[in-house]
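Design a sequence for this backbone.
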């Protein structure tokens, strides 16, 4: 497992989060929405809970729907949480769009979400500088805005870009500190690594310290069919789609041996930080089998 980092999506209770931090993981993540039909929590509140309930691991958003938020508010909240955790925050961002009601509720045009995110990423970095910021952009304008205290991490926390399509890859290559696709197959992940790398070269950008994340839904059971049934039910409720045919190519589910094979394929495709999201009501069982039977078998090949 040399050079392979592990992360897990947070559970809901303080005891669940404490149990996650006791696992051999490097990161714990909180996601969420503002107005989704499945009653998801909100990402920044989730991140604040992780800040108060963890001591060791990096914490991050997977993901914050950045175009829904005023950049100055995000900059201030993230700076404060970074200081509270002595520099353990990573900001994962995406554009969303699967729930149009969120954009109506936040009065942010859905059609502008990509361009707003690009401008907001650049603006966040300015606001984390500890210097007054004057900005005249297409979507955001401000004059002499000073956000103090600045984050602990020099230049602010890493900004990791999530997504599935080429505009998101371009955003990661040009503006992000990492790439975090989701609902991907390992083959598609490998292709995205090539695309992000090529786009970065076109932009003249060095990706030496760039981080390659893979957000993977997981369900592990000695009975592989039961694991697949649980994941299909879980993901179908979350995304309001019919998943049985798609499941093998967008999640790591099945027996410990099958899940090991699936996750190893992501590592072989270039992922160096696996973020595992239990796609089952049996979170405890899936996590126990992951760390007992699956994780010890993973390795980065020379």
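Sequence:
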């Amino acid at each position: 497992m040399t050079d392979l980092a592990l992360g897990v999506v947070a559970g809901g209770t303080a005891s669940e989060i404490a149990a996650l931090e006791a696992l051999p993981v490097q990161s714990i993540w909180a996601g969420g929405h503002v107005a989704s039909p499945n009653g998801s929590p909100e990402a920044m509140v989730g991140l604040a809970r992780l800040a108060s309930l963890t001591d060791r691991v990096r914490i991050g958003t997977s993901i914050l729907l950045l175009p829904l938020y005023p950049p100055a508010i995000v900059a201030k909240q993230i700076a404060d949480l970074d200081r509270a955790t002595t520099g353990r925050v990573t900001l994962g961002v995406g554009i969303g769009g699967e729930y149009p009601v969120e954009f109506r509720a936040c009065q942010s045009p859905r059609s502008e979400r990509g361009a707003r995110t690009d401008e907001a990423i650049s603006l966040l970095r300015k606001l984390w500088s500890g210097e007054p910021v004057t900005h005249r952009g297409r979507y955001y304008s401000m004059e002499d805005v000073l956000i103090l205290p600045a984050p602990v991490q020099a230049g602010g926390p890493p900004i990791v870009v999530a997504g599935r399509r080429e505009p998101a890859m371009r955003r990661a290559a040009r503006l992000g500190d990492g790439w975090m696709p989701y609902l991907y197959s390992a083959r598609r992940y490998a292709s995205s690594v090539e695309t992000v790398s090529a786009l970065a070269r076109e932009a003249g950008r060095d990706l030496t310290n760039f981080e390659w994340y893979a957000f993977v839904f997981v369900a592990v059971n000695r009975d592989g069919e039961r694991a697949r049934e649980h994941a299909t039910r879980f993901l179908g409720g979350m995304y309001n789609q019919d998943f049985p045919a798609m499941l093998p190519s967008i999640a790591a589910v099945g027996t410990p041996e099958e899940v090991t094979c699936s996750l190893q394929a992501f590592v072989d495709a270039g992922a160096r930080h696996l973020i595992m999201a239990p796609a089952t009501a049996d979170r405890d069982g899936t996590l126990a089998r992951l760390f007992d039977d699956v994780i010890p078998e993973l390795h980065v090949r020379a």
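The mean pLDDT is 95.
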